[in-house]
Design goal:
Elements lengths: L9 H8 L1 H40 L1 H4 L1 E5 L13 H14 L12 E6 L3 E2 L14 E7 L6 E6 L14 E7 H7 L6 E4 L7 E11 L5 H4 L8 E4 L7 E9 L14 E7 L11 H13 L1 H10 L3 E4 L2 H44 L1 H9 L4 H30 L5 H26 L19 H24 L5 H4 L1 H16 L1 H12 L5 H10 L6 H36 L3 E4 L8 H6 L6 E13 L4 E8 L1 H11 L19 E5 L1 H7 L4 E4 L5 E9 L12 E4 L5 H4 L3 E5 L5 H8 L4 E4 H7 L4 H44 L5 H34 L6 H4 L16 H29 L2 H4 L6
Helix pairs in contact: 1-11, 2-9, 2-11, 2-12, 2-25, 4-8, 7-8, 7-9, 9-12, 9-18, 9-25, 11-12, 13-15, 15-18, 15-26, 16-17, 17-26, 18-24, 18-25, 18-26, 18-28, 25-26, 25-28, 26-28
Length: 901
């Protein structure tokens, strides 16, 4: 009987032989796939949230598409305003709306309203300045569905209503009833046209269920009356309110002089608006305003129907903001993605290096490159594909919403890269069958010509990317997005070439030392495999990405702090139109968190040179205000600039802005205040800014030299690290207006676009630092078996445990220190090179104040130091732990010959 050979399954055998490596690969692929899949969904989420916030802030009166049908030749029939006719036209209008614009059926409506308001003579309605109130009549569909409560009942039209009907029922909102003193049962007389006045009997007072929704706020007068100034009159005003009629009572509007118009208002469904559709949204809105959609609507409603909306302007403004943020986010995404790709390739390269003997033996025994690559690919895919699917699932669950296609493509790319890294590296390393390979020490290996050509090509691309970014900014083109990454890559390749030089120079002096540890550690560092280029490349790219991202976040914070300081002038301030009470400064000084109080008097409309120009005149205490300017850095000057000796009739010395100084020079300037006080000033010092006022025109004088009426403080500038806003407002009371620098700073984050971009950069910095540590750990763990065996052999020769620890630490330090110092220098150089082309104003400030400077990229010391120090600390920690662990295990197991490691 012939025996049958049993062939062990390749994949199962390999996974059982190295379960730890398989688990580590699965975790790395899952995390990387999760981050890659989460990025496009996170971008979609915060961009959509930013669009929704922009639409909500604009309000329904601007975002709704309002369609008006003017009467042809001023004539409109009763049939045209009946609910059935309007409902049929409304259905045709909805059908004409093109996607992606979607009407919110719950907030969209239609009806008839008077285009002109009409005076009502009823004397019991308030007349603040003696001018009669005016009302507009509205017969809007769906009133019952949009009220929370009704006092009385909703208006009805039991009998058919015509233009001559003498009386109809109506309702008003609770706010209108409160302001116009309207009660249930009240009768309001509206002027008639060719008939007696129309009587509107109020049967109900309604409370809107959603006053801010499109139904009520497309025309805010429906739920909130307003005081309207009389044209041409200085102080005369009148009340304007709305009377809500039943839709069936719409024909009665034809008998009034209010010019009734049919209207249809379409509130956009906010949830259906997506940032990726902004161009299509603008095209659809343009079609409604003056395009094919409007032609269809006119065919259904009449040739004089017009559309009015500001939605296109809102979309355009949002698009500008998004275009300013997107390039910066792309830079972060490219950086983090490159780091992840390098680490994945490095993991595959280290795995191929670890299995070099096994793969060389397989090639020597007849394995083909295709068969070897296929087996390695299947082995890796068995682990990577489920891990990538798990990461994708986690991203989809953690970030609901957003497009799945991009998330799926990103996770698939990560999984494919993880599966292909090991086979490709093995094919390149073993394309020629070898039994023995020569040493490939980093200190002796010479780069090939192909590598030199590839590095020079990358250098040219990096220079082109940097130059493009500096000239055109981050909005230039896709090449500028990779400038930070290419800078890190070039630095890594340069350091790899320079790395052997110090090792060679230090090896001989270290050999003359009495101890063996220093010489042996340098020799071991020099014998590191030349494949260490990938770990070093991963480390420097990750550190550069972390440094650049941290500098962006730091620059954003600094820009907001500076803009808030320019707006407030100090940590907090108290302003008033009149002089502040004399006891207020002392009371404010005792408020928690307040360290110092600087009192100033500000006359905003001081007339210069006989009224030819006006500028704010600031009276200050020279010593206190000079200290404030020095602390804030806003136009610092010495107190002596305002306290120079002068004759009693001589002009006051003044500090002025460049604009005022350029106009008047150093000649005496007559100044006249609003109360008639006059005096003369002479400009002796020029400063660009000052804390008391935020404009570009000002004069600063010594408050003690001003007339008594102009010297009383009208503002207090407060300094303190943590000013208690509640206590400050309580101490101020009603005598002044309180502003805090912290509150002003928070106001600049006005869009989820900004906060979302900041989150992306935070994740990019964390990912860069995390991948740097991961690359370092992978590199150290690859060499762990060899180091453990070395320690075991050296201990038989008398090496102590302390010397073993020092040996492993000193052996690991050269590459770690090189990566840390190189990463810090590369990050600094990257920021310095690219800062002229990076404008952080859009991401830092929601609406840039006119006084704010351009927010530029600046180096963050912490972003450079923390990741670099972490690399060194992790290296020392891992080496120390490895030495301790190998000492506990003993040397017997490591010295047995023939054991596979």
């Amino acid at each position: 009987m012939r025996s049958r050979s049993v062939v062990a399954p390749w994949i199962r055998t390999r996974l059982r032989a190295a379960p730890g490596a398989a688990l580590a690969l699965a975790v790395m692929v899952a995390l990387t796939a999760c981050l890659a899949a989460a990025f496009p969904r996170a971008v979609d989420r915060y961009e959509d949230a930013g669009l929704h916030r922009a639409v909500e802030r604009a309000g329904p009166d601007r975002t709704a598409v309002q369609l008006y049908a003017q009467p042809e030749y001023g004539i409109i029939s009763e049939h045209d305003v009946l609910p059935a006719t309007l409902a049929d036209q409304y259905a045709k209008i909805l059908a004409a709306v093109q996607r992606p614009v979607v009407a919110d059926r719950g907030q969209s409506t239609y009806g008839v309203r008077t285009a002109n308001s009409m005076e009502v003579p009823d004397p019991w309605i308030p007349q603040p300045t003696g001018t009669p109130a005016q009302v507009t009549l509205v017969a809007q569909h769906g009133l019952a569905d949009h009220v929370r409560s009704v006092t009385g009942r909703l208006p009805r039209a039991s009998d058919p209503v015509t233009a001559s009907t003498p009386e109809v029922e109506g309702a008003v909102s609770a706010a209108t009833a409160r302001s116009l003193h309207i009660e249930v049962g009240a009768r309001i007389h509206v002027p008639g046209e060719g008939r007696d006045p129309l009587v509107v009997r109020i049967t109900g007072i309604v409370t809107p269920s959603d006053p801010a929704g499109g139904y009520w706020s497309t025309h805010p007068v429906l739920h909130r009356p307003s005081l309207v100034p009389v044209p041409g009159a200085n102080a005369e005003k009148y009340w304007l309110g709305a009377l809500l009629l039943a839709p069936e009572a719409a024909p009665v509007l034809l008998g009034t002089p209010g010019t009734p118009w049919r209207y249809w208002q379409l509130a956009p469904a906010t949830d259906a608006l997506h940032a990726r559709d902004t161009e299509r949204l603008k095209a659809a809105v343009a079609s409604l305003e003056a395009g094919p959609a409007l032609q269809k609507i006119r065919a259904a409603t009449g040739p004089l129907t017009d559309a009015d909306t500001d939605l296109d302007e809102i979309l355009t403004a949002y698009d500008r903001l998004r275009e300013g943020v997107t390039p910066l986010v792309a830079v972060a995404a490219v950086g983090a993605g490159t780091v992840a790709a390098v680490v994945l390739l490095m993991a595959g390269g280290l795995a191929a290096d670890r299995r070099r003997t096994e793969l060389a033996l397989l090639r020597a025994r007849g394995a083909s490159l295709r068969g070897l690559a296929g087996r390695l690919f299947a082995e890796t895919a068995t682990v990577a594909v489920p891990a990538g699917a798990l990461g994708l699932t986690a991203a989809l669950l953690l970030l609901p919403g957003g497009r799945r296609t991009y998330a799926l493509a990103a996770a698939a790319a990560v999984t494919a890269a993880a599966c292909a890294a090991l086979p490709l590296r093995a094919v390149v390393a073993h394309r020629v069958v070898r039994i023995h390979t020569g040493r490939e020490d980093v200190a002796t290996a010479r780069p090939s010509r192909r590598r030199t050509v590839a590095e020079l090509t990358l250098l040219v691309l990096a220079l082109a990317a940097v130059e493009t970014l500096r000239r055109r900014g981050s909005e230039g083109d896709e090449l500028s997005y990779v400038a930070p990454v290419l800078t890190g890559v070039i630095a890594a390749l340069a350091l790899v070439r320079l790395y052997p030089l110090p090792l060679r120079r230090l090896a001989r002096p270290a050999g003359r030392l009495r101890g063996v540890v220093a010489h042996l550690s340098l020799a071991r560092a020099g014998r590191t495999s030349a494949s260490a280029v990938l770990p070093l490349l991963a480390l420097l790219t990750a550190l550069t990405t972390a440094a650049f991202g941290g500098s962006v976040l730091s620059g954003v914070n600094e820009a907001r702090d500076h803009a808030a300081l320019l707006a407030i002038g100090a940590d907090a301030r108290v302003d008033a139109n009149e002089p502040l009470p004399a006891a207020l400064p002392d009371r404010i000084r005792r408020t928690p968190g307040v360290r110092d109080v600087t009192a100033v008097s500000i006359a905003y409309d001081a007339q210069l040179a006989g009224g030819r120009q006006s500028a704010p005149l600031v009276g200050v205490d020279p010593a206190g205000y000079a200290a404030l300017t020095a602390r804030t850095g806003l136009g610092p000057f010495k107190k002596g600039e305002l306290t120079k000796a002068r004759e009693p009739r001589e002009a006051l010395t003044a500090v002025a802005s460049p604009t005022v100084a350029a106009t008047y020079g150093t000649r005496p300037i007559p100044v006249r205040l609003q109360d008639g006080t006059t005096f003369t000033v002479r400009i002796t010092t020029v400063r660009d800014r000052t804390p008391a006022v935020s404009g570009t025109e000002f004069l600063i004088v010594n408050r003690a030299e001003l007339p008594a009426s102009a010297a009383r403080p009208t503002a207090l500038l407060l300094t303190g690290a943590q000013v208690d806003a509640t206590a400050l407002r309580k101490a101020t009371g009603t005598v002044g207006h309180v502003q805090l620098r912290s509150e002003e700073r928070a106001r600049y984050v006005g869009s989820p676009l900004q906060s979302g971009a900041e989150d992306i950069y935070t994740v990019a910095v964390a990912a860069g630092a995390g991948y740097a540590v991961l690359a370092l750990l992978l590199s150290l763990l690859r060499a762990a078996p060899e180091r453990t065996a070395l320690l075991a052999r050296l201990r038989t020769m008398g090496l102590t445990r302390a010397q073993g620890r020092r040996l492993l630490i000193l052996e690991s330090l050269p590459q770690a220190v090189l990566a840390a110092v190189g990463g810090a220098l590369t990050g600094w150089a990257t920021v310095a090179l690219l800062s002229p082309g990076i404008d952080l104003t859009t991401i830092a400030l929601a609406s840039s104040p006119s006084s704010a400077d351009r927010a530029e990229l600046s180096t963050s010391a912490l972003s450079l130091a923390i990741p670099a120090a972490s690399v060194v600390l992790v290296t020392v920690g891992v080496a120390g732990i490895q030495a301790w662990w190998s000492g506990r295990r003993g040397s017997v197991g490591e010295l047995r010959a023939g054991d596979a490691r």
